[in-house]
Amino acid sequence: MNMIFHGKDDREMNVMIVEDETIMRLALSTLIDWESNGFRIVYEASNGYQALQYIKENREIDIVITDLKMPVMDGLELIDELNQVIGTSPHVVILSAYDDFEFVRKAFKRGVNDYILKSEMDPNVVLNLLNRIKHDFEVEQTMTRQSREIRNGEKVRLKQQTIREWLEIGVSPQSEPSILEDLNMRLEWNSIIISLIRVESSAEVQERYGSSIGEFVSSVVKSIDQVLTEVGTGEVISCNPYEYVVVLSFRTSSLMYVRQHISQIMNQIIFVLKEYINIQVTIGVSEMCEEVKQIPAYYLQARKNADLRFVINKHRIIYPEDARHFLKQSGETLIGKEKALLDALKEGKEQSVLQELDKMFTLIKRSASMGNEVLRTRYMELLMILVKFMYDNGFVNNQEMNKIEDVYRMAWQIDSAAKLQTRISSLVQQLLQEMDKKAGQMNRVVSVAQAFITEHYDEDITLRKVSEIVHLSESHFSTLFSKVVGETFKEFVTKVRMEKAMEIMKKEPYLKIYEIAERTGYASTEHFSRVFKKVSGMSPNQFMKTVSK
């Protein structure tokens, strides 16, 4: 919101506090020494309606600090009403909590640019904000509203155009240092860092804003600029609705100092965008640029680092050292390197197949330095290898082909390597299941497992041990065993042991119960007795009496 000068030079600025919580009003009114800093609290209201009535009768309110959530009339309604009041236009500062981001976003749409977090009411931060408002207020009195808008608009456009030229073609050697001051840039000519901020879930943003996407861009730029204003360095421009560039400069070349401050600034930007606009971002950060003529190269580096969101986790800051791991090796085609994977598939051993598949994924990720399009091409190569194997070995029908075509279509839309790998891994799992069915491997695997259990019933037999023997995962083997045998793995082991126990009792009735338990794989006599009674309906002693008659 704009402000109108109401009186003589250097007068105190009149402030109104609108807050329904008495404790919060008291905290704000005592936070700083208002009068000694050129401000005067003239009225405190407990809701928007009280504030509006006072302003209609007393037009000399310069700043309104208002809560968003209040009874009778909330902060957003108050802002709307103030926009309709002729003859006054106070500067509005909103008080917000961490969970008010939806209200804050709506306030931004109404022209409010400044906010104070209730949980972080630092006196210096609040005073800096008020002094900036006061400074703008004093500057405004020297120009008409029309000339001010023209001048500011031209300066903003010139600033954005200048920064774009720096990023694309570099800073001209003839550029005067005064240009930074002339355009009010919070930058210097040394220790420059470029960051590219990429908005995730662009489809959701487009659906949410539709034709109002320009308001979204304005809100993002204002939110980032608010953070940069507070830290006193940096400029932001938008490349498009989903990409923003932040240029930072520091008065020191100490990498440790710069990195610490970049981390603080970028994390604050991530927080503000999440809390107040409800978007998540990935940020690519460049190395430190010591010569301004190198800005385009470092801008490209920041963009490439942000692109690594495809192979590194999204919703984070990607620093140069994070990228080095993926940029050391150039990409290699998979053709000619698929033999180990195909051999594992022919054997039908799930564990070996998945191990070889992981090796292929690792090989693909080495193409990260060549860009996302090359990465996707490598994944397509892997899909073609799998499809050819399915055709050559008769493990494909129309239904499977439809699924494969779906993966092909989705591959160019999926926004992360992890998701694409999950789809390919799922396809391989389906292939392994189809191979099990057609090759009769299911019965063969279970037969091997049953034979092992029958032979080693007196040992410590676990699902993990037997699944390793047949080279299947525990979950896959457990499901397979139950389906073929008609009872669970544990039930089958118990049945075999009880049958062996009964045989021993009939042949050697003079044995002690603990000896029989040990011979059938039970370390605990009590456990053996409980299981035996549950299966046979009588205790081991009772059973031995019946067979000894």
From TrEMBL:
Which Gene3D superfamilies does the UniProt entry name for this protein? 3.40.50.2300, Homeodomain-like
Q: Enumerate the spans annotated as Response regulatory domain.
A: 14-133
Matching InterPro entries: CheY-like_superfamily, Homeodomain-like_sf, HTH_AraC, HTH_AraC-typ_CS, Sig_transdc_resp-reg_receiver, Tscrpt_reg_AraC-type_HTH
Which PROSITE patterns does this one have?
HTH_ARAC_FAMILY_1, HTH_ARAC_FAMILY_2, RESPONSE_REGULATORY
Name of this chain's protein: Regulator of RpoS
Superkingdom, according to UniProt? Answer: Bacteria
Q: Which organism is it from?
A: Paenibacillus pseudetheri
**Pfam families, per database record:** HTH_18 (PF12833), Response_reg (PF00072)
Q: Which CDD domains match?
A: REC_YesN-like
Keywords on this record? Answer: DNA-binding, Phosphoprotein, Transcription, Transcription regulation
Which residues, renumbered to this chain, carry the PTM 4-aspartylphosphate? 67
Domain HTH araC/xylS-type: residue ranges: 447-546
